[in-house]
Amino acid sequence: QVQLVESGGGLVQAGASLTLSCAASADTSDCSGWSWYRQAQGAERERVAVTIPDGYTVYTESVKGRFTFSRDEKKNTLTLQMKDLKPEDAAVYYCNGGCRRTHGMDYWGKGTRVAISS
User: Rounded to whole angstroms, how far apart are CA atoms 27 and 9?
Assistant: First the structure.
């Protein structure tokens, strides 16, 4: 079973930048897609961005132009670069590996918290 571990969260001021990372304990290059989700307090979990093996990436409207999702296949890592952070970006961020087809299950990290001070 693959473990996903997020890092990089913290408290920043509105307008600042932050980079989140997600490290996988084993090869996930054969998975169907990889995503970043977030869950704000009292809200449902929402998908922030998803990328598929050919590199095509889709972002939720509220983060377009501010967030950049990248994947390093050799290092088995995912990165979410976030800039111009807004108070509404505050949430726990989770990385996800859509691996049900090849591994029989999807993988989730335990999350990293991003807090924004205005």
Answer: 24
